[in-house]
Amino acid sequence: MSRRIPDGPAKTAAEEFLRHLADERQLSEHTITAYRRDLNDLGAFLSDHNGSFDWRWSDVDRFTLRSFLGHLRRRDLASRTIARKLSAVRTFFGFLHVEDRLESDPTRALRAPKAERRLPGYLTRAEVQAVFDIAEVRAAENTLEGTRSLVVLEMLYGSGLRLAELHGMNVADLDLVSEVVRVRGKGRKERIVPITGSAATAIRRYEPRRDEVRGKATRGPDRDALLLGPGGGRYSRRAIQRTVHRLLDLAGAGDEVTTHSLRHTFATHLLDAGADLMAVKELLGHVSLSTTQIYTHTSTERLKKAYRQAHPRSE
Fold it and tell me: pTM, whole model, 2 decimals?
């Protein structure tokens, strides 16, 4: 059986839904790709389940969707992954129902699997300092790579940005005098985030090296990117990740720490220092406060560990 939605009315409806996500909800290309992949998983299951490509979305009921969830569990997918796929399916069937293409929404009675709570990886203050010490030494060499690497660290840790947000940032988004930056987050929502004084200093040191390669790029929006590669084009997401991983490795930060860990570290260190949870939520660009609250668990677990190690009656 095909691993996608078969051609016909079912595929047409799915494509219209994806266009709705792109045009009306203005979701990112990466998010739309994830929705497409999840719907293709459901379409492939339905073709296998029915033994035919001749099916319609109106044929799908809650019992069929429960079978789909069972199919996902048998694939040994994580609960978080299954919950995400169910969320995509719910959004799709909700769209069909609102558009009067279905009399009822079969996903309403479905329960998502309980996702395991995983505390995000983060760096200690000492580890952060070790990473920045290495980056500062390289930036002092005044090369494009060295000065750019320090800017990457300053923005990811100093402002808690997502990788995609830093990748898409243009010079015009920065106000180095006021030390703020305009960030385009998930769903293309904009927010204003402060940058540190050291980040502003790093950017000013990087700018001459950036200007040297900017002229190599062809005309287009990538020439205005904050981070440029040696060819003058926008520095890729993968290249940003390699930059961070190289510095983390040199500092001995550990294999479990990733580029996104700098964002986790930003939030954890702010809350450790007594920052207001709502303020951290706004800085991170979270829609729900519950998403931000995981960092309070990180802080609590660390306090418990310190207590158990230090208090004579903690055992």
Answer: 0.64
Q: Which of 98, 116, 150 is the last residue of a domain?
A: 98
Q: Which domain holds residue 242?
A: 125-308
Q: Are 292 and 286 in contact (CB under 8 A)?
A: yes
CATH code: domain of residue 157: 1.10.443.10
How many structural domains compose the chain? 2
Cβ(108)–Cβ(65) below 8 Å? no
Which residue spans within 141-179 are E strands per DSSP?
174-175
pLDDT tens digits, 197-224: 999 999 999 999 999 998 776 666 788 9
Is residue 2 scored above 60 in pLDDT? no
C-alpha distances in Å from residue 190, one per residue of 22, 193, 194, 206, 224: 17, 10, 13, 25, 18
pLDDT confidence of residue 1: 45
> Nearest Cα to 72, choosing from 122, 37, 28?
37
Find the largest Cα–Cα distance for the chain. Answer: 70
- Name the residues annotated as catalytic: 162, 186, 260, 263, 286, 295
Cα dihedral 57, 62, 65, 71 sign:
negative
- Supply angle C-alpha 279, 281, 285, rounded to 5: 120
Can you tell me the distance from the alpha carbon of 98 to that of 88, in angstroms, rounded to the nearest whole number? Answer: 15
CA dist., res. 179 & res. 157, Å (int): 15
For residue 175, what are the β-bridge partners? 180
Do 167 and 254 fall within a single domain? Answer: yes
Residue 179 near residue 195 (C-beta atoms within 8 A): yes
Backbone torsion region of residue 76, taken as left when φ is above 0, otherwise alpha when ψ lies between -120 and 50, otherwise beta: left
Among 20-29, 87-96, 129-138, where is mean pLDDT lowest?
20-29
